[in-house]
Each structure stands twice: as C-alpha cells, then as structure tokens.
Specification:
- A five-stranded mixed β-sheet has the order 5-6-7-8-9. It has a two-stranded antiparallel sheet with strand order 1-2.
- The protein is built from four helices and nine strands.
- The chain is of the alpha+beta class.
- Strand 6 and strand 7 form a beta hairpin.
- It has a domain of about 100 residues: 3-Layer(aba) Sandwich (Trna Endonuclease, Chain: A, domain 1), CATH 3.40.1350.
Length: about 170
C-alpha cells in the first residue's frame, strides 16, 4: 500500500503549501515540510497502533502455545505446578512435576520448529537457569530435587515438538 505525501498533507489541511512528489512505500517513512512545519509521515506498517496490535496478537498466540504445551504434558501424566513463574532471575514459562522430578519448560512458537528453537538464545538459557535456581530455593529450601530443562516448540500448524533435556 502506498500513500502520496501530497494526499496526506491535504488531509492535514496543508494543501496550500508545496509538497514534494514522493511516495511512501510500505515499511518506509518520509518527512514533508510545509512552510515552517515538518511532519513525519509513516506508513501504517510501522505506526504505533500497528506495532501494538502485532504485539497483542503475538502475546495471545504465545499464551495459547503455552496452554497447548501444558495440556500435552498433563496428558502424559505430568502435574502443572506453575505457569509464567517470575522471579528475580527471569521467567519460566511452565513448571511441571512428573515421576522423574521437576520439569522447567521454555515454550517457543514460530512458523517452523527449527525457527522456534533458533529463538532460544544463550542469554535466555542463562536466565532460565537462574530463575529455576531461585524457584527451587524458594519452594524446596534445603533440597535439591531432580530437574530437567525442556524446550517445547509450536509451529504454524499447531504441532508440538518437545525436546527433553534440551540444554544437556
């Protein structure tokens, strides 16, 4: 979608000022100067409202992915202990318990499972470890339960892939 700078200036009631004959392409911005005023004109792709809408959709999609993964673990016999547990060290998407011990799960959603796994950064793994250490310290003081760290990915079709002991 393109917008003519002169059309936008007309909409701003500035039609009497000379305006460059330049178009704004999708994902680009331009500055129009009329008299002594300058206006930054952005395409809707980068507008604040568009970014907020994309962020809200991504947030809800992430929550849905976490819910799907939690249900997959509970079908396999695990007990869900906490969702989006937050400590000083960071956030843990899911905390579960099964017969082997505690399971800390990082959930990622993307078009493909490989793309989702690629989004797990070394910094994120370090934060996950720190948050898990804090979680165990506050919920199991003086104990060291068996635990593992899984990465669960959800692709564009809703298929779930679980990688147990993903960081081992």
């Amino acid at each position: 979608m393109t917008f003519a700078v002169d059309q936008l200036c007309f909409d701003l009631a500035l039609a009497d000022a000379p305006v460059p004959e330049r178009r704004i392409r999708k994902g680009r911005s331009a500055t129009a100067t009329t008299g002594q005023k300058s206006f930054r004109l952005e395409s809707p792709v980068h507008s604040r409202a568009a970014r907020q809408a994309r962020g809200a959709v991504s947030y809800q999609a992430g929550l849905a992915a976490e819910d799907q993964v939690a249900r997959a673990y509970t079908r396999k016999g695990a007990d869900l202990i906490a969702e989006r547990w937050r400590g000083k060290g960071g956030e843990i998407d899911l905390v579960l318990r099964d017969r082997t011990g505690l399971i800390f799960v990082e959930v990622k959603r993307a078009r493909t499972h490989d793309a989702a796994v690629a989004r797990v950064t070394a910094q994120q793994v370090a934060r996950l470890y720190a948050a898990a250490e804090e979680y165990v310290g506050t919920t199991h003081p003086g104990q060291m339960p068996d635990m593992r760290f899984d990465v669960a990915t959800v692709d564009a079709t809703g298929e779930i892939a679980i990688r147990p002991n993903a960081f081992a």
